[in-house]
Backbone:
């Protein structure tokens, strides 16, 4: 319906309503008059009929004018306002609503324009911040690119799908960014790393990293060696974690070890030739020389015969040495580097592979102690999967039990199942077959075999039958490795005293200028110590110190300090049960005279933070005469700050692990100096906004409030 038709309808309706209103009023008045009054009114109106007709004709014009004004002042103004507001929102943020219509509509337009101004200012500020953040990211990216360009190692950065996000010139040189390689697609941004390196090995490494993350390991990295065309590459993989702690990508550091491995192989081949091929010649020379020495009076003919033997054997030995030196450098049988890993990790990878590829259930039993292996984990998992695939096909096995046991310098893996065992000849045939992921060795030629894998490990495999239990068993004897230094065990909470005779509030480095600084603006060194015992005044000493920095409200995990310290006093048994640091671990470590000056330089120009800080500071204070180091900067104690942020909680709730749990901080590496320092730092960052809600914003306010804490009752 057009605007004119709508206006005409409204005008007609309004005119009729007005006429009906006047008519109704006139009718009511007429009924209320008597006969004489009605006669007088008829005479009065009869003389003015023309005037009433004229007024009736003018009424639509008057009502039309009023109606047009109302339409323009309110509904029309609202429509225009809606249109102009849509213009501001979609096309032109600088446009403003026209001040038109009634007074109320004008005030509404002014309010809308005010909101538009505020919105534009906020939008400009957000855009400026986004531009600033993008500029910082660009600077960080440029610095990272510059840093990577100078690295001696080849580095690839990939996302979770394996797409290459970044690589340095060394990687381009190693993998060939300018031309397709003989083993797949060329290196390039956005390309899949799986076209360059063996996919199964990368997936296997990611599985191992995922397991280490589940175990909350400190450094969840994986290593493997892979062949690419005529190259042999050693690869180190480190995960890139997202905000939820999940693997959002990974970094690969590659090193070409082809020449070094070939060199080692040549040396091994030469030694094998010298030891195996020269033993008989040396024995003949020795025997002939002994005969000449024992019988000096032998006749000339016999002497000539023995000297001829010595000459011929020496010549043959020399020729053998020359042949060994000139041997082909590319002879097969390259040594393949092995990696140290837990038997449980190897079995876990094998279990997943058996379930995924063979639908074979595998249970694991061990001795209850960590067993370390020196193995090529990827090759071993694939080879064992190949052999068990043969077992499944031959005997219909649906489940196996895997056991691991230490056997001197070896670890024996036993895979048991109900049913018959393969015959020796059958097992040798399976071992000689090449294995390949997903194939169980069928129809593949030229790949590595289980025999080659066993030779590489110096390992053995055999089958046997346990007739009493009706079980068949496949036994694999692998070389053991020295255990990787474990994270010290999480013992029960120490009875660390809360109060010590150290005044946190009278540090010489405290200044009014520092007191006025906001907590969020300061730089901090958050630290923790492990000690020989709990009585510093009785001679107990620091044996481990760990620290991490907080700058601009960010925890810099990569800027950390961690040292073991060799003490004068022995470590008590009770302390060893708490932090797991044994005297053997401290042998050969530097003393406090060397370590504490390094820590002082690490912590200079920062505020010190610790949990139950008076305890740690007392140890540092007592070490000052021996080290010459005085820690004079301000100190904050998260124990006291926790009591300020949560005054209603009992004492037990302010212990570090309970506090961390309440604030949603994951506790990793508890009762290690660096692990506790990182937890304390994360707790401190959570406490800062909670303190702000209670009006504690500056360092001075935090110190002043801490003095009123029940934990500020110092003993002197």
Residues:
């Amino acid at each position: 319906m057009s605007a004119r038709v709508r206006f005409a309808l409204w005008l007609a309706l309004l005119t009729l309503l007005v006429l009906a209103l006047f008519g109704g009023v006139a009718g009511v008045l007429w009924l209320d008059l008597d006969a004489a009054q009605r006669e007088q009114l008829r005479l009065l109106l009869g003389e003015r009929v023309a005037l009433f007709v004229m007024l009736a004709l003018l009424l639509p014009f008057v009502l039309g004018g009023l109606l047009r004004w109302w339409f323009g002042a309110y509904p029309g103004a609202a429509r225009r306002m809606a249109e102009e507001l849509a213009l501001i929102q979609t096309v032109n943020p600088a446009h403003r609503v026209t001040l038109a219509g009634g007074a109320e509509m004008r005030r509404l337009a002014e309010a809308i324009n005010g909101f538009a101004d505020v919105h534009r200012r906020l939008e400009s500020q957000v855009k400026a911040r986004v531009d600033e953040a993008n500029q910082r990211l660009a600077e960080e990216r440029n610095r990272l690119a510059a840093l990577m360009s100078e690295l001696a190692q080849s580095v690839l950065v990939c996302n979770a799908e394996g797409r290459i996000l970044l690589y340095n010139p060394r990687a381009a040189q190693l993998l060939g960014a300018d031309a397709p390689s003989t083993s797949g697609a060329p290196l390039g941004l956005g390309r899949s790393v799986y076209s360059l390196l063996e996919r199964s090995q990368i997936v296997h490494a990611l599985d191992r990293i995922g397991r280490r993350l589940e175990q909350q390991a400190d450094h969840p990295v994986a290593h493997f060696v892979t062949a690419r065309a005529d190259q042999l590459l050693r690869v180190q993989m480190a995960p890139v974690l997202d905000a939820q702690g999940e693997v959002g990508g990974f970094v690969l550091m590659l090193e070409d070890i082809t020449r070094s491995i070939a060199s080692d192989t040549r040396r091994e081949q030469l030694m094998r030739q010298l030891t195996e091929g020269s033993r008989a010649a040396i024995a003949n020379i020795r025997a002939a020389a002994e005969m000449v020495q024992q019988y000096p009076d032998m006749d000339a003919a016999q002497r000539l015969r023995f000297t001829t033997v010595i000459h011929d054997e020496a010549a043959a030995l020399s020729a053998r040495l020359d042949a060994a030196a000139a041997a082909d450098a590319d002879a097969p049988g390259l040594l393949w580097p092995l990696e140290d890993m837990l038997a449980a990790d190897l079995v876990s990878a094998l279990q997943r592979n058996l379930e995924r590829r063979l639908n074979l259930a595998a249970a694991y039993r061990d001795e209850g102690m960590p067993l370390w292996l020196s193995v090529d984990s990827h090759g071993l998992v694939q080879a064992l999967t190949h052999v068990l695939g043969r077992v499944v096909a031959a005997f219909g096995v649906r489940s196996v039990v895997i056991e691991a046991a230490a056997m001197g310098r070896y670890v024996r893996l036993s895979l048991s199942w109900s049913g018959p065992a393969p015959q020796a000849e059958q097992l040798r045939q399976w071992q000689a077959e090449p294995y390949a992921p997903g194939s169980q060795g069928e129809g593949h030629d030229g790949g590595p075999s289980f025999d080659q894998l066993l030779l590489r490990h110096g390992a053995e495999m055999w089958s046997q039958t346990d007739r009493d239990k009706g079980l068949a068993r496949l036994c694999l004897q692998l070389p053991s490795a020295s255990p990787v230094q474990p994270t010290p065990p999480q013992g029960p909470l120490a009875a660390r005293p809360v109060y010590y005779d150290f005044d946190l509030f009278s540090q010489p480095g405290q200044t009014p200028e520092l007191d006025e600084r906001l907590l969020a603006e300061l730089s901090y060194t958050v630290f923790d110590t492990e000690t020989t015992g709990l009585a510093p005044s009785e001679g107990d000493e620091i044996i481990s110190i760990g620290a991490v920095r907080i700058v601009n409200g960010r925890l810099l995990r990569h800027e950390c300090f961690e040292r073991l310290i060799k003490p004068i006093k022995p470590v008590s048994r009770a302390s060893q049960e708490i932090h797991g640091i044994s005297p053997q671990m401290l042998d050969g470590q530097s003393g406090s005279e060397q370590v504490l000056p390094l820590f002082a330089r690490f912590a200079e120009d920062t505020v010190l933070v610790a949990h139950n800080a008076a305890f740690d500071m007392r140890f540092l204070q007592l070490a000052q005469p021996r080290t010459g180091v005085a820690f004079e900067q301000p100190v904050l104690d998260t124990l006291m700050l926790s009591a300020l942020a949560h005054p209603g909680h009992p004492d037990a709730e302010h212990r570090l692990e309970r506090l961390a749990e309440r604030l949603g901080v994951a506790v990793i590496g508890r009762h290690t100096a660096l692990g506790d320092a990182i937890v304390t730092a994360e707790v401190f960052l959570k406490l800062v906004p909670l303190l702000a809600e209670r009006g504690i914003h500056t360092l001075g306010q935090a110190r002043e409030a801490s003095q009123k804490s029940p934990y500020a009752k110092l003993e002197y």
In short: The chain has 23 helices and 17 strands. The chain has a mean pLDDT of 80.
